[in-house]
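Lecture 7 notes: from sequence to structure.
We start with the chain below.
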Amino acid sequence: MTKIKKQSPSLSVFRTFKTKDKEFTGEAMRQRGIIIHLAAETLPTRKTRTAIAHKLAELNGTTWQNIYSGIFRDLDEILLPLELVEEAGRLPIKRGPKALQEQGVPYYQLTDSGLLVAASVSETDKERTQIMNKFLEKDSNTREKDLKNAIITLLDIAPNFVLLVLRRYVESYSDGKIDNLVPFNTEHIKKAFDDTLNAQRELLEGFASLSNHDREPIIDFLKKVG
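Predicted structure tokens for the same chain:
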């Protein structure tokens, strides 16, 4: 009898429909919602499965019961095994099965890797900056001081570039090009660079080598076409 190999969990936050490459799948939207919610919330009571379901249901105009099973599956089969989310503790309850009352209801938090994913899917520059600063303060694996300083500066002057780097980085992880999201270092980031990022790097390096006089027409051109 042939043994069926169990498929490894795969992150889907950037997965789109095959016929609509700019539209995220339902699974992608759920996972993004869970991660963004956990990045924003601080109260344990708002970080249980049920609380997450209520929040996402409110945002999507549906009932929490309709999406609870999907959230349960995303957490238990994807986000927890990938160590993007971890159990942060348990809340006591007074009703329900005796075993559940004794064990309590789990609530969750993002790991360092989860914070990177949250930064890559965050909806505003302010959110992304806050999440990345939290990650850089918390992550003991990112030891490259120059990299930390560069990211902090780029978040201020070129937030969309940082967003693109983070997106490509997380996509590379989802595609198996990078085994782990942390440590977040130049060696791992280099594997995530594609033609778009390499073109932007070429522009930056070339621009930095120009005199102020030669930079002016380029800045003017970019302003007109941007």
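Points to note: The two ends are 61 Å apart (CA to CA). The first strand starts at residue 16 and ends at 17.
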